[in-house]
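Suppose a colleague, Dr. K., hands you the sequence of a protein chain of 108 amino acids and asks what its three-dimensional shape might be. Before reaching for any lab equipment, you can write down a predicted structure in token form. Begin with the sequence itself:
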Amino acid sequence: MTLPPTVTERAFARLAEINADAELPKALRVAVEGGGCSGFQYDIRLDEPAEDDLVLEGGGQKVVVDSVSLSFLSNAVIDFTEELIGARFTIENPNATSSCGCGTSFSM
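The predicted structure, expressed as tokens, is then:
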């Protein structure tokens, strides 16, 4: 059984801050692409929802995942973290068997 990813309140809150001054608010797109040092990498960016996207909504904001990436992100958690080295959206992916040190590349 494939479960969709979930988005934390913290991630939706940060997206709301990003969109606060935007004339046309954007969705946060989370995708998986081939590449990176471990085989796959995340592509996280602001974008418009597409017809075949899964749309996750919270706090008036949208996070979208395309149909191809969905199987790679089954049961994953999309979050936002702030650390000494910087702030960023993160993905806790239970499907990844290993990841690189930077946390943006993984293998399955």
